[in-house]
């Protein structure tokens, strides 16, 4: 569980975002808003530039998007062993319902199904706890019984009553599978997590199983456990490997089929090699092949089209070993990429001029490749909730020896911005009109630059002193790591060098990002926390840490203040220059903590500034936010791609359309991309 948290860092940041963009006037009207329910808002994104690609590139993307959609059921099953049965049962009810659609039970039923689609299962996609249906158990039983049994996922030799008996407690009983991932100290994390990565084993058994596999002092360690479920049967512990002929075979066969077709139209030999290795990995499940694939993938930099399509991130496993299935099919945004190329080309300058102690600086910064991409399709764990930045591969030794690819997904951030226009958020929380105007003008540019600096330079900067254990900061490591990357980004955003390099238009632009960051860290991110709770998620902790530390340490100079206007609290930044100096000072300290492995200092910083919430302010923010009637979490429907054929059946074009509704898309995926069995045990 390390760097790749950055996937959510920025996603959260932008998910909460309220910036808007000056591009608006020139664009034809596009409806970004699709649906809204529970705490979720569904948006759609455009794929600018797709039409201008060559037919070969379009076809390449098309085949990859097909593979991306085939993995959806794998994730449902990974997220919980009853998820596919529940989804298929509820979909059958939804499509065959003849009762009163105005009844409270039915409306709640629809919300519940939409939430399951969103979370790829019965647990909240972010909080990971089971959400409770708003309809009655009687309604559920009655409606399932009303459906033609052949449309329901009834196990062989069983009846609809068996199905109902099995699913009812999983859906309705709060005590059954309450959390998808339990990370709370003092529990058997494996046995108390409802995710389907283990079956019948204890945490100790799982840890021992993998400890035995690892070789001491291995310079290129295999990511053991990444692509399997660990089970215990008749006293024997073994892995069910995800591969063709193994676990999830039916879906993986389809994925391999589409990858083969994609290979035929790839842009270059390196891409063909990447796909070959990925196909081989899907066929054999051999993790050495997976590493070969990752090494080939990270070095393929010449093509325009790129993709992730497989078992990738390990956040769903409480032990951080087993990867969920995800996909992102994308191509390079050439114009915007010149921005990140400029940043990367100047990486050494940024490292040399960083405000940290010179003992902690890297003599040579390497391996930072960065580009801005346009996503064409999201799948698995990237859908519908999606990152806006990706940094892969995960294996530390591959990052060390071959570097990593870092991307910013600009058509997604743009959609967030557009959808947020006029939703009232800024009017409610930003202190005055000039600040709002600043954010309207520079929000999109400065927030994107923040992400670029964070991803391309922030995480990669600095070094550990010799002999310092890279795990020294333990449970505080990821909060402090995100803190470091954010501070690096913000410290430099206000530098003259940024204007000199043409990364921001003028010396006011960075202020938009400073203001939104501090307002978010001190106030508005609290909309995601239930009253009375502490902040637990590491990116939220990082943001509050920075904001509160600067509030307190700048108090004497009145750098930041909280103003009361008509009984409402507002963040006011009184001195942007001094705020920048504070960012530099805190960056130096956080870098020292990391470089020296100073656990006690790291702990003190996090515990003092990042965890506790001011209850009165929290109450106020929640009340004000509630009035706006906004959804704190957002996700996306995908565009739809179609082949155009001439009278001889030759493909002449690939078209993209954007008119699908949320339920329409989910039901289509469930029908067309659902090769997996309901029960995979
Ligand atoms: Zn990060």
Protein architecture, described:
- By secondary structure, the chain is an alpha+beta fold.
- The protein folds into two domains: 3-8 and 37-72 and 247-636, Fructose-1,6-Bisphosphatase, Chain A, domain 1; 73-180 and 640-672, no CATH class.
- It has 25 helices and 15 strands.
- The strands form five sheets. Strands 6-7-8-10-9 form a five-stranded mixed β-sheet.
- Helix 6 (137-146) packs antiparallel against helix 7 (160-172).
- The longest helix is centred in the middle third of the chain and has 26 residues, at 433-458.
- Mean pLDDT is 93; it is low at 1-25.
- Bound molecules: zinc ion.
- Residues 6, 9, 454, 459, 482, 485 line the site of zinc ion (ZN).
Describe the protein's topology:
Blueprint: H1 6-15, E1 33-37, E2 40-44, H2 55-70, H3 72-79, H4 83-96, H5 104-119, H6 137-146, H7 160-172, E3 198-199, H8 203-213, E4 228-233, E5 236-241, H9 249-264, H10 269-284, H11 287-299, E6 305-313, E7 324-332, H12 334-345, H13 347-352, E8 368-380, E9 389-392, H14 396-402, E10 404-409, H15 410-420, H16 425-429, H17 433-458, H18 477-493, H19 496-500, H20 509-522, H21 538-553, E11 560-565, E12 568-573, H22 576-596, H23 599-609, H24 615-628, E13 633-637, E14 640-645, E15 651-657, H25 662-672
Parallel strand pairs: 2-13, 3-4, 8-10
Antiparallel strand pairs: 1-2, 4-5, 6-7, 7-8, 9-10, 11-12, 14-15
The structure holds zinc ion.
Zinc ion binds near residues 6, 454 and 482.
């Amino acid at each position: 569980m390390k760097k790749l948290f950055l996937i959510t860092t920025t996603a959260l940041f932008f998910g909460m975002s309220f910036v808007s963009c000056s591009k608006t006037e020139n664009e034809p009207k596009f409806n970004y808003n699709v649906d809204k329910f529970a705490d979720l808002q569904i948006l759609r994104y455009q794929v600018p530039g797709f039409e201008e690609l060559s037919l070969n590139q379009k076809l390449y993307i098309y085949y990859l998007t097909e593979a991306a959609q085939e993995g959806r059921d794998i994730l449902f099953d990974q997220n919980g062993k009853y998820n596919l049965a529940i989804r298929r049962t509820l979909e059958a009810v939804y499509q065959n319902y003849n009762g009163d659609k105005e009844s409270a039970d039915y409306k709640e039923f629809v919300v519940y199904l939409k939430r399951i689609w969103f979370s790829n299962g019965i647990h909240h996609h972010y909080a990971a706890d089971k959400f409770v249906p708003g309809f009655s158990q009687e309604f559920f039983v009655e409606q399932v019984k009303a459906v033609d049994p052949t449309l329901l996922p009834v196990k062989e030799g069983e009846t609809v009553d068996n199905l109902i008996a099995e699913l009812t407690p999983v859906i309705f009983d709060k005590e059954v599978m309450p959390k998808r991932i339990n990370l709370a100290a003092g529990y058997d994390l494996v046995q108390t997590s409802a995710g389907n990565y283990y079956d019948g084993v204890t945490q100790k058994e799982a840890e021992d199983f993998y400890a035995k596999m690892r070789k001491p002092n291995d310079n290129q360690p295999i990511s053991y456990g990444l692509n399997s479920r660990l089970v215990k049967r008749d006293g024997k512990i073994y892995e069910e490997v995800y591969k063709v002929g193994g676990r999830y075979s039916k879906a993986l066969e389809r994925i391999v089929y589409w990858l083969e077709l994609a290979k035929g139209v790839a842009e270059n030999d390196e891409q063909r090699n990447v796909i070959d290795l990925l196909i081989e990995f899907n066929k054999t499940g051999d993790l050495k092949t997976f590493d070969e694939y990752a090494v080939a993938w990270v070095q393929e930099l010449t093509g325009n089209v790129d993709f992730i399509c497989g078992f990738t991130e390990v956040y769903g496993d409480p032990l951080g070993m087993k990867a969920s299935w995800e996909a992102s099919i994308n191509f390079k945004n050439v114009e915007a990429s010149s921005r990140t190329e400029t940043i990367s080309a100047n990486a050494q300058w940024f490292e040399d001029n960083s405000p940290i102690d010179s003992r902690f600086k890297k003599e040579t910064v390497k391996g930072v490749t960065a580009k801005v991409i346009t996503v064409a399709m999201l799948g698995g764990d990237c859908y519908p909730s999606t990152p806006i930045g990706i940094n892969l591969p995960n294996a530390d030794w591959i990052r060390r020896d071959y570097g990593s690819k870092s991307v910013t997904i600009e058509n997604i951030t743009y959609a967030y911005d557009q959808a947020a226009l006029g939703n009232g958020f800024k009017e409610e929380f930003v202190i005055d009109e000039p600040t709002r105007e600043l954010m309207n003008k520079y929000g999109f540019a400065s927030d994107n630059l923040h992400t670029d600096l964070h991803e391309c330079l922030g995480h990669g900067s600095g070094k550990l002193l010799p002999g310092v254990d890279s795990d020294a900061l333990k449970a505080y490591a990821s909060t402090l790591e995100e803190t470091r990357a954010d501070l690096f980004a913000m410290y430099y955003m206000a530098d003259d060098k940024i204007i000199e390099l043409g990364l921001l238009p003028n010396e006011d632009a960075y202020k938009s990002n400073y203001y939104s960051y501090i307002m978010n860290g001190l106030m508005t991110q609290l909309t995601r926390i239930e009253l009375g709770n502490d902040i637990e998620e590491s990116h939220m902790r990082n943001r509050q840490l920075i904001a509160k530390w600067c509030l307190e340490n700048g108090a004497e100079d009145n750098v930041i203040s909280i103003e009361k206007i008509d009984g409402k609290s507002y963040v006011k930044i009184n001195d942007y220059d001094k705020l920048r100096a504070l960012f530099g000072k805190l960056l130096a300290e956080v870098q020292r903590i990391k470089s020296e492995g100073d656990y006690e200092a790291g702990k003190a910083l996090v515990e003092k500034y990042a965890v506790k919430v001011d209850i009165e302010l929290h109450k106020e923010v929640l009340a004000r936010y509630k009035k706006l009637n906004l959804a704190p979490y957002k996700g996306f429907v995908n565009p739809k791609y179609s082949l155009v054929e001439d009278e001889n059946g030759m493909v002449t074009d690939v078209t993209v359309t954007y008119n699908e509704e949320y339920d329409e898309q989910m039901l289509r995926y469930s029908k067309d991309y659902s090769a997996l069995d309901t029960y995979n045990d």
